[in-house]
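Hello again, I could really use a second opinion on something today. For a while now I've been wondering how a particular protein folds. Please have a think about how the structure follows from the sequence. Here's the protein in full, and shout if anything looks odd to you:

***
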Amino acid sequence: VTLDGRSFVLIEDSDASGDWIVDVDHPLSSITAVNCMLFGDVDSDGRVDAYVCRNGRDQLLVQTEDGSWRPVTGLPVPSSDTVDGAIADLDHDGDLDVFAVNADGPDVLLNNNGDGTYRDIATRAAVSGGDRPSRRVLVADVDLDRDADLIVLHDTPPHAVYLNDRLWSYARSSAFEAFESSPILAVSSRYGSETGRAVLRTVEDGGIASNWAHAGAPDAEWVSSERETLCLDAPRSVDLLPIDCTGDGREELIVRTQSALYVLSPDNQVLASFASDQPLANMASIVVEPRHGPGLLTLSEEGALRTLRPATEVDGRPARGDYATIFFTGRDDPAQQMRSNTSGIGVRWAARLGPTWQ
């Protein structure tokens, strides 16, 4: 998605060049005023569907058996500037729901009724944010109770951390007061701390990268640590992407600014940086060869694509360990009246490598 709202569907060229070509005939390429797209199997038919966040009325398109895309009619969304969103099973009923944040109005929480219809229950669930402009949303289990919590970044603090109490009930906690009052521009999460809780990784106004973690006691506040300053040329244009760049089982953090990409270690030390000769607008993780792990695809404000593929060798030696690719799916157990979403979105998992858990 470019800065002027044009969307393109890219497919890898069939020749050996590794280039990408635009599928101009794809239905998703014809939608205008697009800010971003969310993907997930919302109707549990095994095919990926798309929620299109627009400066206008959002659209939901589901894939059909013949490969065409059908728009869902009657979607209860206003005509607003939707700048970010998330698809997740927020009520843990086995269907994927949508949370969309708006730059010019209340946020939207679309409850999936499971029959092809949706209800906006953001006001009822007390997560609409009122009329305060929002910028980003992150879904993460921050209190380690196995449900999906919401972190909403507003244009200016205070931000909002909504703790999921199930049955479309959310709670706020004083433990997040310091986090919510900080001038945070972007947030990501990782697991694997000593307590098992999530660590929230942020970049603040002024270019400060930091890690937020629970202090220990059940009601202890979240505090920031390992604060390092980055050079931000355009502070409002920052994206975060957690990726294991080295194949050692630990996630680094890719920070996109307008002029460069930074690779941060788990304690926010700059491991590498890549300058761009054109202002960067977007980035995404791509896996072309699963054994070699993830690479990066960047998009400039002028629409130029650049692929950063993982290096397989440095000075004749392997640059990374081999990667394993795992696909998760949901499960339906009628005997226990339990099921999970077909896409496996939200799965928490761990793998043991030698004496350590990843």
User: Anything to note?
Assistant: The domain at 173-323 is CATH 2.130.10.10 (Methylamine Dehydrogenase; Chain H).
